[in-house]
Structures are given as structure tokens and as C-alpha cells.
Design a protein that fits this description.
Oligomer: single chain
Distance between the termini: 45 Å
Order of helices and strands: HHH
Number of domains: 1
Mean pLDDT: 78
Length: 64
């Protein structure tokens, strides 16, 4: 578990650096994808999923 947490933190840091630099290349997209896979296997995955579902529900309920 400690190894996967450190990998997740490293990937989060890399994703933030890549996004802040303004140039998202293929290698950057691969790092972001790996971050998603590692986050999906952590204990925070249900929280992220619930937050995204709640956000989608709020957005879909808005009427222009």
C-alpha cells in the first residue's frame, strides 16, 4: 500500500507540473492516465466516483 501511495503522489505532482507548463504531450497524457488507474485502486476511489456522480447530477438538473 505504501508503494502505491508514493506512486500516486509522484504521478499527481507530475500531472500538476505538466498541466501548469501549458504543453500537454502524449507522454503527459500517459502519466495522467496512469494516475487515474492508480487512483482507481486506492481507498479514495469511491469518494471520487461519488463526487463526480453528484456533480453530474447537479449539472444535468440545471435548465438554461
Amino acid at each position: 500500500m505504501a508503494v502505491s501511495i508514493s506512486v500516486v503522489l509522484l504521478l499527481v505532482i507530475l500531472a500538476v507540473v505538466f498541466l501548469r507548463s501549458g504543453g500537454l504531450k502524449f507522454s503527459h497524457a500517459m502519466v495522467c492516465m496512469l494516475l487515474g488507474f492508480y487512483l482507481a485502486s486506492t481507498s479514495i476511489a469511491p469518494t471520487i466516483s461519488g463526487g463526480l456522480t453528484a456533480t453530474a447530477d447537479i449539472v444535468s438538473s440545471l435548465r438554461p
